[in-house]
Amino acid sequence: MSNAYYIFKKDVKSLFMSPLAYVVMAVFFCVSSFLLVAGMEEASMRGAFGLIATMLIFIMPFLTMRSFAEEFASGTDELLMTSPVTSGQLVAGKFMAVMALAGAIIALSGQYALIIGIYGDPDWGPALTGYAGLLLLSGALASLGVYCSSLTRSQPAAAVSAFGLALLLIVIRAAQSAVDALAASFTGSAAAEAVAKALSSVLETAGVLDHYFDFEKGVIDSTHVVYYVAFILLFLFFTARRLDSKRF
Questions:
Q1: Pair 212, 224: CB distance under 8 Å
Q2: What's the pLDDT tens digit per position in 150-171?
Q3: N or C of the chain: less Cβ packing under 10 Å?
């Protein structure tokens, strides 16, 4: 774990010294502030959470793109691969560093909660669960982005692929209605109907953003928590295996 902490400290310092981090923070602050002021109709954080979750889809690929792609491009990955740091420790350290920056960006939205608290009487329960959901969502997107960064030495390619996969996991839910209609048409074939229904069930649970909506309502469903934790662990595992394949 000490090795993972060393990687975490090195990457956190690198991330917070990078102009990109402050550009992303500034864009997030300006865009979210403008849209919230323009569209807020009640003293509630619910609208803010929906906006922040959407912005994370665009922001996280930029935060994760340099995780491994920069190491591969500069050649420093050879030092990491021959060091006593395991692939799991390396992945954990870089993931935690990205999450530290993501947490700082999410914390910027605390100003909205403060303003709403001053001028309104918000329900703080949904606010707390909303922030918990944002951290889980950002963790899922971070693990996906770190994995994409481990596949290439090009940072733009890592960002584009991470955004593309995240977008796919969002719009995949739209395919469920088509599959449901297909299942209804298989009235004469029990096997085909069962396959279509099983596919529909998979599509229903695959949407990375769909599992967030209950959090902003103040509802903590263990199904959503398990989904995000499993998603994070799965892509971190894929990343570690990818690094292992480069060691040999």
A1: yes
A2: 999 999 999 999 999 998 888 7
A3: C
Cα–Cα distance for residue pair 88/243, rounded to 1 Å = 9
- Which runs of E-coded beta strand occur in 2-147? none
Q: Which residues contact 63 (CB under 8 A, 6 or more apart)?
A: 15, 21, 24, 98, 101, 102, 142, 145
CA 164 – CA 170 distance, rounded (Å): 10
What pLDDT shows up at residue 191? 60
First and final C-alpha spacing in the chain: 23
* Residues 15 and 98: beta-carbon distance below 8 Å: yes
Would you say the C-alpha torsion 143, 134, 21, 15 has a positive or negative sign? negative
List of residues 6+ apart from 139 with CB closer than 8 A: 99, 228, 232
Is the overall model pTM greater than 0.90, yes or no?
Answer: no
Nearest to 228 by CA among 203, 240, 211, 215: 211
What is the C-alpha to C-alpha distance for residues 129 and 126, in angstroms, rounded to an integer? 5
Q: Provide Rg for the chain, Cα atoms.
A: 20
**What letter represents residue 63's amino acid?**
L
Please, are residues 166 and 140 in contact by the beta-carbon 8 Å criterion? no
Residue bearing tokens 């969502």: 137
